[in-house]
Design goal:
Layout lengths: L1 H31 L6 H21 L4 H26 L9 H23 L8 H5 L2 E4 L2 E4 L1 H22 L1 H11 L1 H6 L4 H23 L9 H16 L4 H21 L4 H15 L14
Antiparallel strand pairs: 1-2
Length: about 300
């Protein structure tokens, strides 16, 4: 029984981390219809920006509670700035073209950012673990979990609930939903679609960067860390349905529980199990479980 509880707790914690990163990816696709391959590099950028900002703060004995705010601040600044440059400087020139072209453009941006990160921060790993250990541990039976993981769960819940509330209950959110539904009609009605595009892409970039920044105290921040996360988040949004926020939440929870089950019962198949689930879901629902219905064209 204790192992079942461990699977549930591990799965939820892993799912929260995945959802936080996948949320930005599915938001960008829902509005701009761009499958952003550079999302993993934005995640890595947030991790590097976070350790760069809190490293000196922790080394000088700064308040560790403040370090959590600094992590988020670093992610907002780095993700927002680079997201603005990417969207206004490059992506807007390719709107209206074949989706494959945009996919290749974002893949090129991914490669450029990976090399740019190496040029700025080098290839040596960075590690600042104090914020991770500072909050202590939570005991569940014979197992002990860092309380820092519950912080990530909380941030993921706030991000998901906050974005859902924004889309449903604010004027800007309703206008954004109109853009998602039909950008041409929205533009004809006077909605500044380009403004919503840039704000959405920046928001997606910031969410990816926050995911990276909050992950930074738990791992060694090193080149290539964005590659794995972009593969996992793609699996999440494909399972749930591209552009669907409930789909991203369900996909993250499913992947998290499957991965946790594999870790405890089939360790050698940990990563493989995720792709088994994705293949099974796509065999039944090729566009994902929560994929929106499309109008039938005659």
């Amino acid at each position: 029984m204790s192992q079942i509880y461990a699977v549930l707790v591990d799965g939820v914690m892993y799912a929260a981390w995945l959802f936080l990163v996948a949320l930005g990816l599915t938001l960008v696709y829902g509005v701009l219809k761009i499958l952003n391959m550079a999302h993993g590099s934005l995640y890595a950028l947030g991790a590097y920006a976070g350790v760069t900002l809190i490293g000196p703060w922790v080394a000088q004995g700064g308040n560790l509670y403040v370090s959590y705010l600094l992590l988020v601040l670093a992610a907002i600044v780095a993700g927002g700035a680079i997201g603005l440059i990417m969207e206004r400087g490059i992506l807007k020139r390719f709107y209206g073209q074949d989706p494959v072209v945009l996919l290749l453009v974002t893949y090129a941006l991914f490669l450029i950012m990976e090399d740019a990160i190496k040029l700025v921060w080098g290839v040596d790993p960075y590690s600042v673990s104090e914020p991770y250990s500072f909050l202590g541990n939570f005991d569940l039976g014979d197992l002990s979990y860092p309380n820092y993981n519950f912080l990530i769960v909380g941030v993921a819940l706030v991000a998901g609930v906050g974005l859902t509330a924004f889309l449903k209950f604010t004027r800007s959110g309703r206008l954004l939903r109109a853009v998602i539904h039909d950008r041409e009609v929205s533009q004809a009605m006077g909605i500044r679609v380009s403004r919503y595009f840039v704000v959405t892409f920046m928001a997606g970039a910031v969410l990816a960067a926050i995911g990276g920044a909050l992950t930074a105290p738990t791992v060694s921040v090193a080149p290539g860390m964005g590659v794995e996360i972009v593969v996992l988040t793609f699996a999440v949004v494909v399972i749930g349905g591209l552009g669907s926020l409930p789909g991203a939440a369900f996909g993250a929870l499913l992947v998290g529980l499957v991965r946790a089950s594999a870790v405890h019962y089939w360790p050698q198949g940990e990563l493989f199990s995720i792709y088994i689930v994705m293949a099974l879901v796509l065999a039944v629902r090729p566009k994902g479980i929560f994929a929106p219905l499309e109008a039938r064209k005659i």
